[in-house]
Structures are given as C-alpha cells and as structure tokens.
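To the wet lab folks,

You asked to see what we're planning to order before we commit. Fair enough. Below is the target structure as tokens, and below that is the sequence we designed to fit it. If anything looks off to you, flag it before the synthesis order goes out.
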C-alpha cells in the first residue's frame, strides 16, 4: 500500500474523529475491569477525504488494548495514516507489547490523543516513544470530554480510591422518606429506570444498614437486557446486625454482596453469612460515632479493583460521605410530591447541591427532575 499524500487532516476533522472515538469508547464503559475503556480510530486520507480504516476498543476484561485491535483491522493501510486515541497509548509490557511501539511499527505518521494517562507505567512515556519513533503527536484534543468518560479510572489514580457518586431521591421539601414507613416512593418509574441504568455503569452500590432495615432493597439492575450488569452490593454494617433473611443476603449467590463490619464482630455469624454467599471487608470505626471510617474503607475497596461506587442511601450514609468530602459526583432526583411532617431530611437538596457542587446536567423524567453535579475542584 502506497503512503497517502501528505494532506493535513484539519483540526476541525481532528475534533470530529476524536468525538467519534470517545463515543465509541463509551460502549465498553464499566466492562473493562481496572482498565479504562479506550477507543482508537485509524484514519487515512488518500486525497478523496478522510476515511476510517481501523477501529478498536479495549476488549471486555481489559485486554487486548484498543490500539492493537485498530491496527490489526487497518493492516498495511495504517502506513501514513493518523491514529486517534482517547488515552495516551501505553508504554509498558503487559500481556502484549506496548501500544506506543505497535503504533510506531505500523507506520502511522501521526497520533492525536485526548486524555493523558496517569498510570506511572505510562504517564508521558507513551507519547515519548511515539516522538522518538518519528511520529508527530497532537495531545490533549478534546481531553476534557474524554476525561469525563474515563473519570472513574482517572479518579482511582488521582485519589487512590474509587470514584464516588452519591445519588439521592428528594422531595421538593428536601426529604428522602418518612420515618418508620419503609420504602417511600419519591420518584416515578421513568427516573427509577434511569437509576437502574446508572447502577449498571457502576462496579458497586453502597448503602447503610438503616436502608437495609427500612426498605429491604434489592439493589440490582432490573432493566431488560442489563440484568447481568447488576453491580456488587456493599452494606455498611460495622456492628454486624444484618439478618440472614434480608433480601440482600438471600440473593447473594446471584449478585455479589460485601458486608463491611468491624473485625471483632461475631465470628460465627460471619461464617454463616459467608456460607450464604456474602463476603466481608473489615473496617475501622470513627471513635465516638460508631460510624465506619470511610476514607480508609474507600482506599481498601479501590485496592480490590473497584473503580466506581454508587452510594444510594440513606441520609446518614449520604451525610457521612459528604462530610468526609468523598463525593465526586452527585445525582439528585427531585420528585413532585411533598413528604411533609415526619419526613427524613436529606443531607443535601438541589439548592445546597448548587452551592457545594457544579451543576453539569439537568434532565426531566416524567414528573421528576434529574440533576447531576460534579466536584468543584
Ligand atoms: C492503551 N490502550 O486500550 C488501554 C490502556 O494491565 P494492562 O497491561 O492491560 O495495563 C493496564 C494499563 O493500560 C492501564 O492502567 C492504562 O494505563 C492502560 N490502558 N492503554 O494503550 C488501551 N485500556
Ligand atoms: Zn496499550
């Protein structure tokens, strides 16, 4: 295959192809383990306008990487082409040779990349290999957009813990339920389906024992076609009070259940819960409060490979995460019905959310309003 004539692909085209690559990479979001879901497009212009000759996306489970697959598809057409990658190509030897070396060997003439890779094995070394190999490198094209999809991976590296999203359904008067009433439906069926979609994109859902006692929730993803995307359920239960009859324990064989308890709790009870399919993570408690020491727990959970956690309640757990400044993203779903007297006050509502966080999205699902926020720094 002859090299294409040196027609520069314009910067507008750079953004167009990078946007396509970012959308493509989202397909495997949440399916690539501790690896980010990266996408690569190989684009070639022989004079009649640019065309895509190879596409790749990080495989389920994390390997092979996106570049290797895209280059495989492009074959000799990669020579003289431009590669669009949503993350800096890797520089380390894993189960396959470094993607940066594969790009050099393929004869690609230019690499356009979006997000920088904070993995210490890469972190600038990928781009350096490309430049040393004579390729021209255009980094940080649509970096912000790419980082938003790779945010769980990037948070784990930057903060040494999973990315944490707190989600609360609040009434217009700022309540999340009514004391002693079990599950109170604040939001309607459309918003609830959206919640299940959000669950499917997380490695774990976390709740406190208060919610388990009041609601006996299933905490699974019940959307048709996504039933097998139910994340691990994590219950904060420092004193190990969970009953073996609760729904979470009874379903532990279908959907993983992790109970977070102090190491000195009843060993027999732990044994029987483990026999039912649950597993345990030991925690420390904050002296005086009896509450789980969250920063340490988050670090421990991150070390087990959990990339992102959806915190789904209730008020005490939400408050603890907010107080510990562990909330990276906040989702508030505001229903239309007041709860009024006897209500459980939410630790955060739309007004205080706007003060503390940056509002990034505002949607409507039937009668409910869906607000998404991000950490300000
Ligand atoms: C790429 N392309 O598609 C992905 C990359 O365990 P390994 O060997 O797969 O390495 C994991 C690291 O590879 C991960 O931390 C990140 O730096 C990079 N992910 N790199 O060139 C890809 N998924
Ligand atoms: Zn790679």
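Sequence we intend to order:
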């Amino acid at each position: 295959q002859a090299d294409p004539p040196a027609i520069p692909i314009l910067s507008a085209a750079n953004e167009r192809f990078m946007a396509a690559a970012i959308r493509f990479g989202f397909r495997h979001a949440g399916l690539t383990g501790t690896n980010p879901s990266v996408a690569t497009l190989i684009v070639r212009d022989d004079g009649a306008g640019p065309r895509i000759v190879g596409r790749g996306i990080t495989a389920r489970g994390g390997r092979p990487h996106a570049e290797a697959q895209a280059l495989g598809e492009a074959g000799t057409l990669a020579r003289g082409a431009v590669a669009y990658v949503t993350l800096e190509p890797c520089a380390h030897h894993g189960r396959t040779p470094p993607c940066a070396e594969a790009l050099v060997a393929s004869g690609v003439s230019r690499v356009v990349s979006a997000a920088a890779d904070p993995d210490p094995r890469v972190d600038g070394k990928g781009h350096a290999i490309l430049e040393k190999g004579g390729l021209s490198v255009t980094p940080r094209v649509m970096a912000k957009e790419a980082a938003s999809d790779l945010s769980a991976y990037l948070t784990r590296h930057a903060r040494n813990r999973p990315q944490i999203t707190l989600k609360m359904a609040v009434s217009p008067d700022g309540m999340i339920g009514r004391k002693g009433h079990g599950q109170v439906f604040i939001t309607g069926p459309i918003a609830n389906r959206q919640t299940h979609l959000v669950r499917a994109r997380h490695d774990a859902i976390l709740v406190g024992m208060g919610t388990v006692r009041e609601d006996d929730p299933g905490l699974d993803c019940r959307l048709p076609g996504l039933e097998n995307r139910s994340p691990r359920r994590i219950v904060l239960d420092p004193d190990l009070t969970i009953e073996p009859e609760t729904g979470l324990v009874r379903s532990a064989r279908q959907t993983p259940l992790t109970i977070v308890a102090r190491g000195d709790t009843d060993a027999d009870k732990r044994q029987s819960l483990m026999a039912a399919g649950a597993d345990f993570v030991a925690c420390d408690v904050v002296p005086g409060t009896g509450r789980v020491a969250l920063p340490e727990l988050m670090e421990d959970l991150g070390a087990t490979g959990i990339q992102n956690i959806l915190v789904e309640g209730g008020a005490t757990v939400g408050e603890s995460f907010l107080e510990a400044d562990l909330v990276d993203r906040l989702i508030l779903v505001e229903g239309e019905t007041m709860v009024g007297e006897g209500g459980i006050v939410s630790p955060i509502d739309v007004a205080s959310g706007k003060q503390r966080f940056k509002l990034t999205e505002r949607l409507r699902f039937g009668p409910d309003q869906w607000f998404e926020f991000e950490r300000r720094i």
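Structural context that might help your review: DSSP finds 13 helices and 16 strands in the chain. The mean pLDDT is 93.

Thanks,
Computational group
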